[in-house]
Amino acid sequence: MDIVIRAAIAFIVLWLVTRAAGRSTLGELSSFELVLFVVMGDLVQQGITMEDRSLLGNLLAAFTMVLLAAILAYANMRWPKIGKLTQGRPIVLIRDGSIDRKALHAERIGLDELSMLARLAGIEDYNSIRLAILEANGKVSFFTHEAQSQQ
């Protein structure tokens, strides 16, 4: 039972760490960041099992993590308010060419990063952006005035 409790605590801590890292950070991990998360998972595993080398201990810890992830996914689907809390909600970064600097600061997104994302979307000027939304998965969706007039 001790392994289940430690696995549950580790699950909550890892969830909090990934939420604190920010959506834009998790949306696209660099190779180093991916390795860092894998190493962090290995370190957490050792803490969960207290270096327990038994097959039952390792399977119990893995099962607990999978079960908690499934419960969280079900709760997100069943109760939308929980989904907003655990997954976050979309955040408007630009509205009618006007940048919301508070939203950028809160999400730890630099103006240069936003400009790069706009350029990658084929947008040269902020004034042509009707809406830029940071999605819950870390991607930025851009809606331009030109796209609206074509519909």
UniProtKB/TrEMBL annotation:
Gene3D superfamilies: bsu07140 like domains (3.30.240.20)
Pfam family name, one: DUF421
InterPro entries from the UniProt entry: DUF421, UPF0702_alpha/beta_dom_sf
Bilayer topology term: Multi-pass membrane protein
Subcellular location: Cell membrane
Residue intervals of the YetF C-terminal domain: 78-147
Family recorded in the similarity comment: Belongs to the UPF0702 family.
Record protein name field: DUF421 domain-containing protein
